[in-house]
């Protein structure tokens, strides 16, 4: 019997030793596994915290004007820009030991296990804020063991690489508050119409209760359940010493005003411009579509809301509602190329095709300033003359004969100056100049002015028969307006990522590509379309809108059978307007032929209202201004009936005085002498 007992004892000791050894081995394995997990987590480093967020678009004054629309509202704000009451309420109800644990609250886990065992069901959650954040960032919300293990691993990585403040900020910016609102900023705007920084204790405690069940505890779903949940949160805040009982009671009794609207959904400012901005983000900054739509970018643009409103109102005012005419408009600051207003069509919902950026249309006579700038480079002056008469051009190289026509087939049938030819838009003068310079010259000049569309090497190019884009024409005229500096039409000044890091910032560099003196002479010639002193065999082309303008402008109108244009500028603003049918149908109604000019003139006046009236300032050197007779370009005398102050490139100003009216004066004096009354006696005695 004793032997058996001794054997049993030895057997028991053997089993205990085995259990201890196995346990130690197991513990060592667990420790190795744990250390391996920690090491692997350390090697992998910090997991990225980027989450889907709405990209926001801002006008030039910082006003939010639009956002990417993915059906969800996601904004990111720093912890300092969130109400402390909301932060405290969230920690208090979701994870009161958040600042003490390292991602896992073991006491809470144990308590949840016991509660679940007692209830024979899962009645209590034990996920910490870090665990929930890991789930929101990287995982699906299924309940498999694989998901739970992966969640735990991401939790370790988050705690190892980020501070508690960074984790809490990320969590509050990613949790779902219902009704498409992700993060506290979107939720605050939706439920209360205010920023998260401005939430009261009552509002913060109400919001903090929604994530537990957005369809149950949202005040818009059930105010009763929302208030009940709010009361629990306020009690937890008192218990965890964030607020006093009095504060809790006051907040619980406070009446809340609910909005229930995503305010930015209503924002549809300048939809064509916003589309152009998205294209620029993709094609110029090389961002992918997902980053543009859901990268949480902040895109700061050049759009001026006042000028945009003016552009849209003028289009609506002047284009008849019954007309199918479309309009493209671009207004930009000539000093830096910033696009201040853009109209791509009359109704974005019906047609998102952007005629200001995408359409390629014939510019007509608006191409002539580029041609005549090239002529100035080749020695032409505003006083250079050519005959304006019905002309058929014959070519020796096999080209077909070409017979351009002036508007209404009106010709001077005599010499006209370059300044007058431009003001009345004489086509014969333009084609002669084009052929004299060589057809390649205008093609090269167009490229110098920033036009990228292909130009045909034909005589009619001088009359704008090769298509261009509205935005590029606005850019081309900006070179004249700013004294010869190349500025690229610009839509975006700065782009920030969701963390506020600047990933793009526009550098204001303008390269000089034109001679300032010649650019100014060209500008001064373009003021002629509004100057009746240059009326000749036809009126200046801006005569119909002179009464609508109150400040100095330079500009040029243009028309083809299917296109109507007006492009012009003040020192502060360049605007290009095109009107026509999308299908290239001829513009036949007289009213439709006036749309571009009227929109341009009235837009410029409204857009510049309140700004100082500025004249075009000549460069400090390189130009000379003299009075000339606009009919012949010679220096005017006091006897000339019309005298116009005209600028020339220094050294090219006329030196010959006009004698036409001096001659007329001498003849009139002679006639007066001949018809002078002769005394009666002289008739009888002529020798007396």
UniProtKB/TrEMBL annotation:
InterPro entries: Beta-lactam/transpept-like, Glyco_trans_51, Glycosyltr_51/Transpeptidase, Lysozyme-like_dom_sf, PBP_transglycosylase, PCN-bd_Tpept. Keywords: Carboxypeptidase, Cell membrane, Cell shape, Cell wall biogenesis/degradation, Glycosyltransferase, Hydrolase, Membrane, Multifunctional enzyme, Peptidoglycan synthesis, Protease, Transferase, Transmembrane, Transmembrane helix. Residues 329-604 form the Penicillin-binding protein transpeptidase domain. Its EC number is 2.4.-.-. GO terms for molecular function: glycosyltransferase activity. It is an enzyme of class 2 (transferase). Pfam families: Transgly (PF00912), Transpeptidase (PF00905). Residues 62-237 form the Glycosyl transferase family domain. It catalyses: Preferential cleavage: (Ac)2-L-Lys-D-Ala-|-D-Ala. Also transpeptidation of peptidyl-alanyl moieties that are N-acyl substituents of D-alanine; [GlcNAc-(1->4)-Mur2Ac(oyl-L-Ala-gamma-D-Glu-L-Lys-D-Ala-D-Ala)](n)-di-trans,octa-cis-undecaprenyl diphosphate + beta-D-GlcNAc-(1->4)-Mur2Ac(oyl-L-Ala-gamma-D-Glu-L-Lys-D-Ala-D-Ala)-di-trans,octa-cis-undecaprenyl diphosphate = [GlcNAc-(1->4)-Mur2Ac(oyl-L-Ala-gamma-D-Glu-L-Lys-D-Ala-D-Ala)](n+1)-di-trans,octa-cis-undecaprenyl diphosphate + di-trans,octa-cis-undecaprenyl diphosphate + H(+). It comes from the Bacteria. The keyword Membrane applies. Its main location: membrane. The chain crosses the membrane at residues 20-41. It is found in: Cell membrane. PANTHER family: BINDING PROTEIN TRANSPEPTIDASE, PUTATIVE-RELATED, PENICILLIN-BINDING PROTEIN 1B. This is Transglycosylase domain-containing protein. It comes from Bacillus salipaludis.
